[in-house]
Specification:
The structure holds two protein chains of two kinds. Chain A has helices at 3-13, 22-34, 36-54, 63-69, 79-87, 98-117, 128-140. By secondary structure, chain A is mostly helical. In chain A, α1 (3-13) packs parallel to α3 and α2 (22-34) crosses α3. Chain A is elongated. Chain B is mainly α. Chain B is elongated. The chains are: A mainly alpha, B mainly alpha. The interface between A and B is large, with 30 and 42 residues.
Chain lengths: 149, 196
């Protein structure tokens, strides 16, 4: 490790060896043993960190009470939350069991309605009139082989 | 947090108690004055209450998310007001320290104390004059204990940009510390000479 690399390491990770990336700890320690400049640089960083630690922050008396006592706007839950709350009420599902039951039946009803209104490309291969004549002949159990058409 | 989403105020109060100190300290270190720090801290927790369901635990820790809200509010504040307020507070500190130092009993103590205070003022001033991005990077990594990656996420910059900002900040402050140190050494050698 060069001194420039060591300087960068101190800038990015501080002067405490335990906070350095594990891959760089050993080369940095070796450089510290060999180079007086590296040791000076580490000391300078330690002094900088001590100066930073010495800077005080005021106690902020009463801030906690101020934050806790501020008027909070009522929360407006989203559509999904409201739907879930209606389907599965927090006070118990017992008397409201019909709600999830209705929700579960909805896809079935939807399928029946869809099937009733749309044929999805299935077209009878005979006309309506022929179809009804065949039906009537079958219902009457009449032998139609000799019939004259 | 799920309880806060459901509107549970006691859960909200527990979160306030847990994170108030770190958020207010971070805001103070960025803004440098007490009144605006309190206003911004209050707003951070109001935003927590209103936007609780927007927090995504798989993306960020709650403390990271709260610091990001605080960071954005502080940056907005600084862009609106500049560093004027910080300088005002520093000037007040300076006057206070001069007044208090005048009452110090011994002349030697007075000189030592005033020198140390002057150094601290110089350091504070240098810190306050750092660009906002450099100051934020330093505060998040040094005081709040975030990793470089988390700090970059809070500041919404790349890890490289954060590391560059932090290196610049430390370089500037190192110069101040180095100058103070060489001054101290000069004073000490002059004192030893006068004794001999």
């Amino acid at each position: 490790m060069t001194e420039d690399e060591f300087s960068k390491l101190l800038d990015l990770h501080g002067s405490v060896p335990d906070s350095w990336p594990s891959t760089q700890q050993e080369p940095a320690r070796r450089l510290l043993e060999l180079s007086a400049e590296a040791r000076d640089l580490q000391q300078l960083h330690q002094r900088l960190e001590t100066r930073l630690d010495r800077l005080q922050v005021p106690a902020f008396e009463g801030l906690e009470a101020r934050v806790l006592n501020q008027a909070l706007p009522p929360r407006s839950p989203g559509f999904v939350d409201r739907l879930l709350a209606w389907l599965v009420p927090a006070e118990g599902i017992g008397p409201q069991l019909w709600r999830p039951a209705v929700a579960a039946c909805l896809p079935l009803v939807f399928g029946v309605v869809l099937g009733n209104y749309f044929s999805f490309g299935i077209v009878p291969d005979s006309s309506d009139v022929d179809f009804w004549e065949d039906e009537l002949a079958m219902v009457a159990l009449v032998d139609v082989s000799d019939s004259e058409f | 947090m799920q309880a806060v989403c459901r509107g549970d105020q006691s859960a909200y109060q527990a979160l306030v108690r847990e994170h108030l100190k770190s958020i207010s300290h971070y805001a103070y270190r960025l803004l440098g004055n007490q009144k605006d720090t309190e206003d911004i801290t209050q707003e951070v927790f109001l935003k927590l209450w209103v936007n609780a369901e927007k927090w995504q635990p798989q993306k960020a820790k709650l403390s990271t998310w709260l610091h990001r809200i605080a960071h954005n509010l502080c940056v907005d504040y600084l862009r609106k007001h500049g560093n004027t307020q910080i300088r005002d507070d520093l000037d007040n500190d300076n006057n206070d320290s001069q007044q208090s130092s005048a009452t110090t009993a011994g002349q030697q103590d007075f000189e030592d104390g005033s020198e140390a205070r002057a150094q601290e003022q110089r350091f504070r001033r240098a810190l306050a004059q750092l660009p906002e991005s450099q100051r934020s990077a330093l505060m998040l990594c040094h005081y709040s204990g975030f990793s470089n990656k988390e700090a970059a996420a809070i500041m919404n910059v790349s890890v490289k940009a954060l590391e560059s900002a932090m290196a610049r900040a430390k370089r500037t402050l190192r110069k101040i510390v180095n100058e103070d140190n060489s001054e101290e050494q000069t004073d000490q050698s002059a004192w030893q000479e006068s004794l001999s």
